[in-house]
């Protein structure tokens, strides 16, 4: 009987390994983007954005933020230079004034098509129409910086640096230093998919965009009061909404424990081209540093109401 049990168990394990291997192989063969390097400098992001707003609804120039970045990425081989590529954007605009379209230059190039898909997945909800606090429809930057307006913060590009707690790994996010209790703002609207304590991130939450292409990870939130009152998994969040408070929790199995380091928000931005990438070995995390610099041009004002902070204006997408 023991031999029969052992044989059955071995058979089940073999089947599991077979199907797991088949599933992994099947994922490898699927045709979707599996890696994205975001190397676009803040200065280029801002310059392309300003052109996009300037020529929005223009009758003479068709300028598109994503297509312009994709054009530059192919032109420079994804090795950006702020000064050179701002000049290249100016040259591109002059060509568009002459009647060209951005797609005329690299439209059939496989790398151009890759960058269009990658940058569209990342920036598709960053620029567009929204209703401001005065009820006016505005075209512009509709996502928000994660630190509320009026609160100090400091940061540098730390994506990919070494981490050793638990196991040796790369830092797949961006640490924004600030004061404990600083209101944390939702960069983009979406649904809360992860919530509560994690031994690495401490009090943390994840918000997945409504189109499913992006997930934002906010970690190390404040001890004792990490979130605004009533927040829970499954809630729908608006861009610009206060979601919690900066802290320094994490790196502990014991819940509600502070780390021995400076208070900071850990921000992660994940891209999802296939559901297999959402939580697994094939996750795609991009460097948020330049994005945070870009979003510094749109910070949410907040006011205190009871024990919580509330955004004065929350963008409502059209």
Briefly, what is this?
By secondary structure, the protein is of the alpha+beta class. Helix content is 30%, strand content 24%. Strands 3, 6, 8, 9, 10, 11, 13 and 14 form an eight-stranded antiparallel sheet that branches. A three-stranded antiparallel sheet has the order 2-1-17, with no helix packed on it.
What this model shows, in words?
The chain has 2 domains: 82 residues, no CATH class; 164 residues, Glucose Permease (Domain IIA), CATH 2.70.70. The longest helix is centred in the first third of the chain and has 28 residues. It is α+β, with helices and mostly antiparallel strands and 318 residues long.
The CATH first-level class of the largest domain comes to: Mainly Beta
Separation, N- and C-terminal Cα atoms:
67 Å
Number of strands: 17
The named CATH superfamily of the largest domain: Glucose Permease (Domain IIA)
Total helical elements: 7
Give the topology:
Blueprint: H1 2-29, H2 42-54, H3 65-76, H4 82-97, H5 103-106, H6 110-123, E1 127-131, E2 137-141, E3 154-155, E4 162-163, E5 169-170, E6 174-177, E7 183-185, E8 190-198, E9 202-209, E10 214-221, E11 236-237, E12 242-245, E13 264-271, E14 284-286, H7 289-295, E15 302-305, E16 308-311, E17 316-317
Antiparallel strand pairs: 1-2, 1-17, 3-6, 4-5, 6-13, 7-12, 8-9, 8-11, 9-10, 10-13, 13-14, 15-16
Helix pairs in contact: 2-4, 2-7, 3-6
């Amino acid at each position: 009987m023991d031999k029969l049990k052992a044989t059955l168990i071995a058979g089940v394990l073999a089947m599991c390994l077979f199907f797991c291997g088949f599933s992994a192989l099947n994922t490898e063969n699927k045709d979707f983007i599996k890696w994205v390097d975001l190397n676009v400098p803040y200065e280029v992001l801002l310059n392309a954005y300003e052109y996009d707003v300037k020529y929005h609804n223009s009758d003479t120039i068709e300028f598109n933020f994503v297509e312009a970045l994709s054009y530059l990425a192919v032109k420079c081989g994804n090795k950006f230079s702020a000064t050179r590529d701002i000049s290249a954007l100016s040259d591109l605009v002059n060509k568009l004034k002459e009647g060209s379209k951005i797609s005329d230059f690299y439209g059939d190039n496989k790398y151009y098509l890759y960058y269009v898909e990658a940058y569209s997945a990342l920036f598709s909800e960053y620029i567009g129409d929204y209703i401001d606090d005065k009820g006016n429809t505005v075209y512009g930057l509709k996502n928000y910086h994660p630190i509320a307006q009026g609160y100090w913060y400091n940061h540098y590009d730390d994506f990919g640096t070494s981490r050793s707690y638990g196991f040796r790994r790369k830092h797949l996010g961006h640490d924004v230093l600030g004061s404990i209790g600083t209101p944390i703002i939702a960069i983009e609207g979406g649904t809360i998919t992860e919530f509560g304590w994690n031994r690495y991130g401490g009090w943390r939450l994840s918000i997945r965009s409504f189109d499913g292409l992006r997930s934002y990870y906010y970690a190390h939130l404040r001890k004792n009061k990490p979130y605004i009152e009533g927040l829970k998994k499954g809630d729908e969040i608006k861009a610009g909404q206060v979601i919690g408070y900066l802290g320094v929790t994490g790196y502990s199995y014991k819940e509600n424990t502070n780390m021995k380091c400076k208070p900071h928000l850990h921000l992660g931005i994940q891209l999802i081209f296939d559901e297999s990438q959402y939580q697994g070995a094939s996750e795609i995390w991009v460097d948020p540093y330049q994005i945070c610099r870009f979003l510094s041009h749109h910070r949410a004002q907040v006011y205190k109401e009871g024990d919580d902070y509330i955004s004065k204006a929350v963008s409502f997408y059209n």
